[in-house]
Structure formats: C-alpha cells, structure tokens
Protein: ROK family protein
Amino acid sequence: MTSDEPAIGAVDWGGTWIRAAMVAGDRIVHSERAARPPALPQQYEVVADLMRRCAAAVGRPPAAIGVGIAGIVQRGLVVSALNLGINSPTDVAGGIRSAAEVAGGISSAAEVAGGISSAAGVAGGVGSAAEVVGGVGSAAGGVGSAAGGVGDVAGVPIFVVNDLQATAIGVAGRWPDGLTAVMSMGTGVGGAVLDRGRLLAGEGAAGDFGHIPVQPDGPSCPCGGAGCLEMLVSGRVLSEVARQLGDTGRSPFLTARLSGGRPLHAGDLQDATDAGDEAAIAALERAAATFAAGLRTIVATVDPARILLAGALLAEDAAFGRMVRLRWEAARPFWCRTPLIHVPDDVDAALRGAASFAASFGSNIRPANGREM
Ligand SMILES: [Zn+2]
Structure:
C-alpha cells in the first residue's frame, strides 16, 4: 500500500475465531486471528490486541475500525449475540476502546520498529516508558497522531455491524448499482439489502432473511417466531435431514455412507441427490421450494435488481443451488426478472465488508446501523 492510502481496520468477530485486518481499498494488507476466549472482557482484549498487531504490521494506525460481529446490532449497540455471551444491549465499541486504553497506549513507535506487538500491553500497562509515551499520545492525539504510535487504536472511531451484513457488503462490492439483496446460507441463513453498495439495515436487522416466516405452524425459532426460513432450510437443518434419511434407511445411499463412521452432513445429502437417490432428491426439492418462497418475500419487499446467493450449499454447481435456481424460475412472480447470481465463497468478505462499512460511515451511508457521526 502507498503511504498516503488510508488504511481501515476490520474485525470479524465470530463464535470460534476473532480475525482482524488492515484493509486498503478492497485489499487486505495484513490480517491476524485468535481463538475467541469465552468471557467478554477477554474478547475485548483480544480484539484490541489483534487490531494493534495489524496496525503495527503495516506501520500506521487505522483511520477507523469496522467490527462485524455475530449478533444483532441496533444503532451501534449489540442487542443480542448469544454465541458470544451477550444477551442485553452492549456497547461493544466502548468495550474495545476501553480495552485498548487499559493496554496503555498500546504500541509505541519503538515497539513497532522492533516488530513486537505487545502482549505485555494487553496484560495491562506493564510496558516500557516508550509505551507510556504512546499512551499519552493516544489520549491526546487520536487517529493518526504521530505521538500516539502507529499501533495505537485507542482513539480510533469504531463502527459495529452484524457479521453477515458485513459479509454481504463484502460480496456485493462488484455490483455498485441499484438494489442488491444478499442471501447467504451456512449453518443458518442470513442476508442483507444494499442500495448502491450501502447497507440498508433499517433499525438494524433488515435483511435478516433467515427469519422470513415460511410456515406459520412450523418449528419454533429462537427469535420467538415459528416456521422461520432457517428453521426449515439451513446447513444445520439439511445435515439433520441427511442423518434422518441415513438412520431410518429411507435413503439407501445415505445409509450406506453411514457405515463410513462419520456423521452425515448437508454435503452428503447433495451427493445422494447427484447419485439419483429418490428420498434425498425429494427432501432437497422440498427445501428448495421453501427457500424459493423466501426469495419471493424478498422480491415482494424490495424488488431488488439482483439477488446474490452466498454459501457453499448455494454454489452454482451444488445440487441445492441448482434446485433453487430451477424452483425460482417456476415460483417467481410473472413480472419479476430478478436474477439469482451465485457468488463464490470468500473467507475475507466479512473483513472487507466491515472495513467498507466503517470507511463509508458518515459520508455516504444511511444512518441505519452503527453510530451516527
Ligand atoms: Zn426466527
């Protein structure tokens, strides 16, 4: 990256890993990751430390930090992130900032020159005199302050966004015109709506397509609803279907595969479908029809220029992805021309999207999510 190119910090805060990166334009310049510790205060410290390491590695502080987190975010507060131990509205940005401040100026120029990213700093102000100087600079200087040290992230503005929304911003970058809906399927189902690349989050959770009701008398959902899309079609549900078809002998293909000893998952259901197994085909057809009903709701709500399908199960060459495409041709409103576009798996999309969210905030993003500037 060039010396005058702004670098934006990005964090992808998931249930298993916390990743951080420095992003310039749409390029990840440096990234770090760590396993997520169980307690929230330690998670703040890990985020601050990873971000500091990234800043030190590229030799400058981030101009802003975007945090994609596996939870529901409303107006900058994480109102629920059950996998991370958050069940009441929490100022995550404030938590990260405090952890960065407690660490004491985080990393001084001397530290950066030595390539050390201070584990000691995280441990709590036990650093050198140089670190203390960095700390003073951080309190006084804020972003880009020479006195703050290049690894200083304590005074940097932080913007928080749902991780699937961050991913959606990341994958939708290639379609800068019109309305884009992103539907992603992994363990659960998520998504987002973007207007010319800007996230439209409403009060925070717009585009959370996993909770489109598709069967009012269906299974109850942790959101409090019943028959939500992700309770009927998701990686988790399709894996469960694969196990049932194998266990009960209804699918000879899956029953045979059970003898391999490992638990069956959604990929096995697709393999069975490709092999012509009738029970698997029927199950996946049902799932595709349910998924297409969800797509119809998206079209009825925002009539986007395109719907991007993300996630391995929705890939162009995956059995489920193919079935969804066929179903959509049959199920879409007659006036609707919305194409489904498969987007390849991209592990860095959440980081790029979080950075993009932070970078655009206050200039061209609608004040729907994160903190207003
Ligand atoms: Zn739900």
Observations:
- Residues 211, 221, 223, 225, 228 surround zinc ion (CB under 6 Å).
